[in-house]
Amino acid sequence: MDPNILSDCKKRAAERAAAVVQDGHIVGLGTGSTAKFLIESLGERVRLGLKITAVATSIATERLATELGIRVVSLNEVERIDITIDGADEINPDFDMIKGGGGALTREKLVALASRERVIVVDETKLVTVLGRSYKLPVEVLPMAWTHTSRALNELGSQSHLRHQADKPLITDNGNYILDCDFGGIADPAGLEKTIKLLSGVVECGLFIGIADLLVIGRPDGIEERNRPR
Ligand code: 5RP
After folding, report:
1. In whole angstroms, how far apart are CA 15 and each of 29, 129, 132, 135?
2. Which residues does 85 contact at the CB level (< 8 Å), separation at least 6?
3. Where would I find the beta strands (DSSP E) of the chain?
4. By the 8 A CB rule, do 174 and 140 touch?
5. Phi and psi of 155, rounded to 5°?
6. Hey, which of 39, 89, 140, 217 would you mutate to test ligand 1's pocket, going by the most ligand atoms within 8 Å of its Cβ?
7. Is there a catalytic annotation at residue 90?
8. Residue of 15, 62, 90, 108 marked active site
9. Angle at CA 228, nearest 5°, toward 222 and 230?
10. Which ranges constitute the DSSP H helices of 20-170?
11. pTM to 2 decimals?
12. Helix intervals (H) in 19-168
């Protein structure tokens, strides 16, 4: 899809999701290009008088939200988040997802798990039948043992590559590395998530199971909303 059309789909869907946020809400703010549109839309509503408190899923999100006048607190300062709105890299018909394209998977999962309602905003290119066929699964790992964790992931059937940025290993907001793991199609996302989380050196896995409640899909011809299948 044309990148401008894609961007417009994300923007309109993010604006639709932002409209769900109400006065007094504690809002989890996602990370990525879709989340950026969401934060801009919420920033505009705050400028017009909306009163919210936000919890950010990355340093970049916290910076943007603060610049736009949104009050940001840490996850430890709140007992519960009312609603979290975030993007995704892939989502299947059961609403299982791959996230972490922006390297923020650990904070994204923690914030989502602390939330009463989780809204995921995507353009239609993120809808897949099988996770992991065309997008590699991000896994956040401890730098001091990354080669060992990478081998352990490869023993599970992956081809794992250390993510780089400007010729150096990418360092996450938590000071860790990301391994992008090609599993060539993930038949059992819930089982794989559990297996990966048991590997020493793994901080978090980019499989998000049972987390998305509402999906907002931006399409060139309109916006579709879907509830998680029961
Ligand atoms: C960041 C994420 C993002 O939600 C995901 O990568 C989607 O990004 P975008 O909205 O830019 O397509 O998981 O860690």
Report:
1. 13, 26, 28, 26
2. 14, 17, 18, 20, 21, 27, 28, 29, 30, 35, 38, 119, 120, 121
3. 26-29, 53-56, 71-73, 81-86, 90-91, 97-98, 115-123, 137-141, 159-162, 164-165, 168-169, 177-182, 202-205, 207-208, 214-219, 222-227
4. yes
5. -65, -20
6. 89
7. no
8. 108
9. 140
10. 33-47, 59-67, 105-113, 146-155
11. 0.97
12. 33-47, 59-67, 105-113, 146-155
Exposed, middle or buried by CB within 10 Å (0-12, 13-18, 19+), for 219? middle
pLDDT in tens, the chain (230 residues): 899 999 999 999 999 999 999 999 999 999 999 999 999 999 999 999 999 999 999 999 999 999 999 999 999 999 999 999 999 999 999 999 999 999 999 999 999 999 999 999 999 999 999 999 999 999 999 999 999 999 999 999 999 999 999 999 999 999 999 999 999 999 999 999 999 999 999 999 999 999 999 999 999 999 999 999 88
**How many whole angstroms separate alpha carbon 68 and alpha carbon 143?**
34
Let me know: does 214 contact 230? Beta carbons within 8 Å.
no
State how far the Cα of 210 lies from the Cα of 174, in Å rounded to an integer: 24
Ligand 1 atom with minimal separation from the 206 CA: 13
Residues contacting ligand 1 via CB (< 6 Å): 30-34, 86-89, 99-105, 108
Token pair of 34 as six digits: 């879709």
Contact 80, 54 (CB under 8 A): no
